[in-house]
Design goal:
This protein is of the alpha/beta class. The protein has one domain: Vaccinia Virus protein VP39 (Rossmann fold), CATH 3.40.50. It is built from eight helices and 13 strands. The strands form four sheets. Strands 5-4-3-6-7-11-10 form a seven-stranded mixed beta sheet, sandwiched between helices. The protein has a two-stranded antiparallel sheet with strand order 1-2. Helix 4 links the parallel strand 4 and strand 5.
């Protein structure tokens, strides 16, 4: 259960431990102690959550949650505060996991943490009512492979967020074009991802940054139906046609058995 505000909290000790755990990317409020008060994006990720949370039930009583790339644990904390049952938060970075564990402990919230790569997400046997895949996609060298693996863990809703660049205007495209049709590639709205060979924003793990239509195309191609777009970098989705003949898209692709028309959502 959450720690009651009436209980004695050693704020000096909390502040000191926040500092010891290194630089935080998530600004959490730990009984009045902010973890990243000088974040270059402002009060992040609260500024995003204030929009996203409108698309998530206020009462998540008993719902299971998987938070992939949990970072400092902000989203896991918010889902647990809404009454979620099991919340499993995974990340590959020990610093983030230590921060998230401390935040949950300080707030008196029961959240499970595990060091796990998104590419290893299959090692988790079950599916979850809510899967959060926030701020990870553009840090991946193989982003679509990761998304296809993540989809396998979604029984209810996927909350997906990625940095986007380029056009943010939605557009519709034909299912097919002639080989000689090249002008579509000159359109800023055509689905595209920008590959970053060096570094972007001082971060060499920013590998691929999509535009809006690339995000939405990939979500649909992975068998998801887009239900909402609460803010410019976030989409709410649910599984629609993630399997073919009882097998997931990624498993068919790796086995060399995925038909092109299936992978491109042309059923």
């Amino acid at each position: 259960m959450p720690v009651s505000p009436s209980e004695n909290i050693d704020l000096l000790a909390v502040s000191q431990r926040v500092h010891e755990l290194g630089e935080w990317f998530h600004n959490l409020d730990l009984h009045g102690v902010p973890t990243a008060p000088n974040h270059f994006l402002g009060n992040f990720p609260t500024i995003k959550w204030q929009k996203i949370c409108r698309d998530i039930p206020e009462d998540l009583q008993g719902a299971s949650v998987l938070d992939i790339g949990c970072n400092g644990g902000f989203y896991s904390v918010e889902m647990k505060r809404r009454g979620a049952g099991r919340v499993l938060a995974v990340d590959i970075d020990d610093r983030y996991l230590n921060q998230a564990r401390f935040a949950a402990q300080t707030l008196g919230l029961q959240i499970e943490f595990e060091k796990l790569s998104v590419y290893e997400i299959d090692s988790i046997a079950e599916q979850f009512d809510y899967v959060l895949f926030m701020g990870v996609f553009y840090h991946l060298r193989y982003p679509l492979l990761a998304l296809d693996r993540v989809v396998k863990k979604v029984s209810g809703k996927l909350i997906f967020q990625t940095m986007i660049r380029g056009s943010k205007k939605a557009a519709q495209w034909e299912k097919d074009y002639s080989f000689w049709t090249t002008e579509i590639f000159n359109s800023p709205e055509f689905p595209a991802m920008y590959f970053i060979e060096g570094s972007y924003s001082g971060d060499a793990t920013n590998w691929w940054v999509p535009n809006r239509n690339a995000v939405e195309s990939m979500l649909r191609s992975s068998g998801l139906q887009i239900l909402g777009h609460p803010e410019e970098e976030t989409w709410i989705c649910e599984p629609s046609h993630t399997q073919r003949h009882g097998r997931f898209i990624v498993d068919l692709e790796i086995a060399g058995e995925l038909r092109p028309e299936e992978g491109n959502n042309r059923e």
